[in-house]
Amino acid sequence: EAPSVDDTSKRLGLSTTPSAVHILKTIHTAHGGKTSVARVLRGEVPDSAELHLGGKHERVAGISSLLGATMRKRGAARAGDTIGLARLDSFQTGDTLSTVKTGAQQVARLAAPAPVYGLAIELKDKKDEVKFSAAIAKLTEEDPSLRLDHAGETHQLVLWGQGEMHLRITLERLKRKYGIDATPRRRQVPYKETIRATTSIRARHKKQSGGHGQFGDVHLEIKPLPRGQGFQFTEKIHGGTVPKQYIPSVEIGVKDYLTTGPLGFPVVDVSVTLLDGSYHSVDSSDMAFRQAGRQAMSEGLPQCQPVLLEPVMAVSIVTPSDATARLTGIVTQRRGQLLGYAARNDWPGWDVIEARLPESEMDNLIVDIRSATAGVGSYTATFDHLHEVTGKLADQILAAHK
Question: Model's pTM, two decimal places?
Fold first, then answer.
């Protein structure tokens, strides 16, 4: 026997509030707009009631009974009723509303499951971009386990969800409900590169084509930094060989080149020092020194033993204990580093496996985990560090990129 609504409200700690309406789900329809599916936990909600949450309030545009996709207008709702509330644009799934301004209590929100599968998507018609943003906002409001990211490093739109079928159904809904056709693509891995050796390089940018010319001359020292240090630029100019107003332009030129290094990827963990240079009182300019800085990097960085870096993720896999051995094997097959496993707190018969896994090996990981655990296992992943890739694997990655 299911607990009564009175028992439920007591369990949720709602005994002191005169009314409570908990939004369970949000639906967007073509003609009816936004509908909030809610359960009345305490009190009564009359038609055209004003509902409150914190400082926000909105008047209900209509109350409906729900039967599948069919909605029928109805009158006041009482504790225990599950209803549709029209046009509550300010409120979201998980909110607990009240007909009174003060004394309302919030029911604990259920966290949406973390996304475990991503697909890059590409709009077939660029004209749909504005419409796409509004449509995705509605889809993610209806389904909080969806997430859209703009991967700045790879310039891809990545839709995240709970699996391939989940995302394909989402793309079908996007086309059916909003008329937007999006093609799934494989996610690109945000590889980077760095250097292993130090060099000193001099570069001169000089052009003369009538009137004022261009002149910039720089002497740079380029050397590697420890992993994770990013980029550093310093100057050791003496005697004004490069005027102070041009030094920032040299740094800009250096950064220009670092966006795409000798291997074709952004360059990290590099220190550049401006040691010396020269200028022309008429022909030197910010642009000339910017070009000189970029030219020095393009000539010098290939001499510094560039090396490919791949992102490595910190992965935690939760699994029934009888599948732990199979999953540790899956981790090692994917070039993963197994850190160990331990019993999951307060979950008898379950383990947590800790590992480091290259991001390039994360595609379809959830498929293998679910296959090994009869669908109950899952994982979470966060970026951990960048790791050098050498040998045949590096050659394959570079060949595919080019």
Answer: 0.84
Q: Say what the pLDDT of residue 211 is.
A: 65
- Nearest-angstrom CA–CA distance, 150 and 260: 19
CA dihedral 223, 227, 228, 234 (to 10 degrees): -10
Tell me the angle at which helices 129-142 and 164-178 cross, rounded to the nearest 10 degrees: 120
Task: Tell me: pLDDT of 325 over 90.
Answer: yes
Residues 151 and 119: their CA atoms lie apart, in Å, by: 11
Above 90 in pLDDT, residue 3?
Answer: no
The whole-angstrom separation of Cα 47 and Cα 99 is: 11
d(CA 149, CA 169): 18
DSSP per-residue letters across 11-23: HTT-TT-S-EEEE
Please state, in angstroms and rounded to a whole number, the distance separating the CA atoms of residues 274 and 250: 8
Asked whether 252 and 293 are in contact (CB, 8 A), the reply is yes
Q: Give the three-state DSSP class for 46.
A: coil
Pick the closest to residue 273 from 242, 245, 303, 302 (CA basis).
242
Lowest mean pLDDT among 84-88, 170-174, 219-223, 313-317: 84-88
| Structure confidence at residue 282 (pLDDT) | 87
Q: pLDDT by residue (tens digit) across 231-273?
A: 999 999 999 999 999 999 999 999 999 999 999 999 999 999 9
And the tokens for 154? 């790879």
Exposed (0-12), middle (13-18) or buried (19+): which is 368, by Cβ within 10 Å? middle
The alpha helices in 218-363, defined as continuous H runs, are 247-258, 286-300, 324-333
Q: Which residue has the tokens 């998507």?
A: 121
Encoded tokens for 215: 């002149």
Look at strands 231-235 and 270-278 and give their pairing. parallel
- CA–CA gap between residue 295 and residue 182 (Å, rounded): 40
CA distances from residue 396 to 24, 194, 290, 360, 392 in whole angstroms, order as listed: 49, 18, 34, 13, 6
Cβ–Cβ under 8 Å, residues 125 and 182: no
Sheet containing 147-151: give its strands across: 147-151, 156-161, 117-123, 182-185
Asked whether the predicted pLDDT for residue 285 surpasses 70, the reply is yes
Tokens 């204990």 — which residue? 321
d(CA 77, CA 79): 7
Structure tokens belonging to residue 369: 């985990």
Q: How far is it, in rounded angstroms, from Cα 245 to Cα 136?
A: 47
First to last CA, the chain: 64
Residues 322-335 have a mean pLDDT of 96
